[in-house]
Design goal:
Elements lengths: L6 E5 L4 H12 L3 E6 L2 H11 L6 E5 L5 H15 L5 E4 L14 H29 L2 E6 L12 H21 L4 E8 L5 H7 L6 H10 L9 H12 L10 E4 L18
Parallel strand pairs: 1-2, 1-4, 2-3, 4-5, 5-6, 6-7
The structure holds nicotinamide-adenine-dinucleotide.
Length: 266
């Protein structure tokens, strides 16, 4: 029970990594608000966590609209009866394909959710976290928050921006007792990843196996690996850690892998 007494909000909690984090924070003793644009989905998850709605509740929110983020935080404060202590700005969307083929609307949507939405939701949450006098603000970045990748230009730009946002907010809110960090995972098997891969292959399972085989550790992180890291950064065990982006990538960013030599060195 590493989060006993915590009051946690997770965005994008109707699915994938956000759902996994909300479940894990609750298992560790936190009361949780599951915020998502998919209110029905968030309700299903919240009810499966706590059918009585005493310790887990869903709130509808479109993070790309500032007023919606403010309303979400107000609803969370009413539910908790006080300020938020953990906020995980996790909701995000994919962007893949050649930049030259991307319509303006698709580019603006990816930026509106992944960057503007992360900023609006963090801004709303920081007012509350600052009042608590201690708090942890987490973002879900990506390996594309620290490394480039072809066919992912706009996504990469939005996630790199999160890395800078984390550093600046860590400096701005440290004296108010709020720690600010990000998690940067390589591909994890979630609906978002499957949807993205299905744009370029009919064999999504095969692609996921290949992705795992190509990582230095020969495996891909599971949602549990992501929630282990989120739990650590959210908890008091990370009390001296702020401004950091923690990469969860099975070694992908460690360097360039070369093929094994085909004959022993002479
Ligand atoms: N799965 C991966 O491989 C992977 C890797 C690196 C980073 N990420 C990041 O992890 C985060 C979660 O991704 P996931 O894989 O769990 O995806 P997912 O599609 O399973 O879940 C994303 C959730 O965000 C919600 N959402 C989308 N737009 C929203 C909006 N405007 N307002 C509120 N909620 C909104 C969706 O309804 C959905 O429930 C994203 O920020 C993504 O960029 C995922």
């Amino acid at each position: 029970m590493r989060l006993q007494g915590a009051k946690a909000v997770v965005t994008g909690a109707a699915s994938g990594l956000g759902e996994a984090v909300a479940r894990r924070f609750h298992e560790e003793g936190a009361r949780v608000v599951l915020a998502d644009i998919d209110l029905e989905g968030a309700r299903r998850v919240a009810e499966s966590i706590d059918a009585s709605s005493r310790s887990a509740v869903a709130v509808g929110c479109d993070i790309s609209r500032e007023s919606s983020c403010n309303e979400m935080v107000q609803a969370a404060e009413v539910f908790f009866g006080g300020p938020i202590t953990i906020f995980h700005a996790n909701a995000g969307t994919a962007f893949s394909g050649a930049l030259l083929d991307a319509e303006a609307e698709r580019i603006e949507r990816a930026i509106g959710i992944n960057l503007t939405g992360a900023i609006f939701s963090a801004k709303a949450a920081l007012r509350s976290l600052s009042q608590a006098g201690e708090g942890s603000l987490l973002f879900t970045s990506s390996l594309q928050g620290v490394l480039g990748r072809p066919q992912r230009s706009v996504y990469t730009a939005t996630k790199h921006a999160i890395t800078g946002l984390v550093k600046s907010l860590a400096l701005e809110f440290g004296e108010l007792g709020v720690r600010v960090n990000a998690l940067a995972p390589v591909g994890i098997d979630t609906p978002l990843l499957r949807q993205q891969l299905s744009r370029t292959t009919d064999d999504v399972d095969g692609r996921i196996r290949d992705m795992a085989a190509n990582l230095p550790l020969g495996r891909m992180p599971m949602p549990r690996d992501f929630t282990d890291a989120a739990l650590f950064l959210a908890s008091s065990e990370a009390r001296c850690i702020t401004g950091q982006t923690l990469v969860i990538d099975c070694g992908a960013s460690a360097g360039i892998r070369e093929p094994r030599p085909s004959k022993p060195a002479a």
